[in-house]
Amino acid sequence: MAYAFYIKEIGRGKEDARNLSEDEAYHLFAALLDGGVPEMEMGAILMALRMKGESLSEILGFHRAVEERTNRLEFQSAARPVVVPSYGGARHAPNLLPFVALLLTRLGIPVLIHGALRGEGRVATVYVLRELGILPCVSLGQAQARLEADGLAFVPTQTLAPGLASLLALRSRLGVRNPAHTLVKLMNPLAGASVLMASASQTHSLEIIREFMVAAGSRGLLMQGTEGEAFANPERRPRIEYFADGQREVLFEQEVGPLVGLPHLPQGIDASTSAAWIRRALAGEIPVPLPILHQLACCLYASGYSDTMHEAKAVVAVATRGLSAA
To answer: Which of 15, 37, 68 is a domain's end point?
Structure first.
């Protein structure tokens, strides 16, 4: 493969660089995932894409390459399972993604979380899950068994897509993100019907994921993440959008204006404190923040558990009575 051609096209600077076609992007990312690109050329390609920014055609091509190299789990349930990428971690606010996952399993919605085993200075979801007694799965077979038995499994990226995990690991060497950090948020290792719960922090990232989900006909939810994790900010609900068959529906608009009141949240962001708060909230000792209840309703609707959002909100209200003052 003539890597100089790709570098020349995407490395001309933000104004003059050309976006790759979907097929060009597919072949380039396939080579990156397969480890066939020499280090110098790989660094140049990743930095050029970082400076230019990925286009929709490139994300579609990259995603096709990832899909072909992702290990699949065969799992069926009455309601569509929810797949949650977890690659942010807490830095200033507690990581409540495990709380959302556990609430969903209580409602009968299976949840598959995939992510990194290290937080790189942040409190990763896997750390909080360990404090709750939920360990990462070491194989696809174990993940399958956990989903069937408990309705919840955490699978490391390395187990699902080794090539993508290798590209993610380059952040520590290059100092910046690369397309793998967007692609991993779109990765869905569940074969069959499921719901992807995607999130992003930056406006450009939200827009490119939005465009991708429409163009690809993906089924999923999209929101601005809380420090990069796919759970609703417990203090101020983000906009939550639903995608299916190329259509987009806004289920909740972003909350604006002054805060009416602050929810009771963990006093620290470390894994132990977060897990202790989650246990108390699950026991009904602490009310569930309203934005998280809204997120649960969106998941029930997207999973096919409820036919309408009105019904979904009613189910959540009844199911969490005693856990929430809302």
So the answer is: 68
Is there a single domain that holds both residue 55 and residue 126? no
Task: Answer whether residue 324 is part of any domain.
Answer: no
Number of structural domains found in the chain:
2
C-alpha angle 205-168-159 in degrees, rounded to nearest 5: 115
Per-residue tokens: 221:
């939810």
| 212 pLDDT higher than 50 | yes
Report the amino acid identity of residue 320. Answer: T
List 252's β-bridge partners, or say none.
Answer: 240
What was the pLDDT predicted at 324?
52
Q: Which of 1-5, 116-120, 312-316, 318-322 has the weakest average pLDDT?
A: 318-322
Q: H or E stretch including 157? A: helix 157-160
Tell me if 185 is assigned to some domain. yes
Would residue 237 count as lying in a domain? yes
Q: Which whole-number Å values give the CA distances from 274 to 87, 132, 157, 190, 212, in the listed order?
A: 17, 10, 23, 28, 33
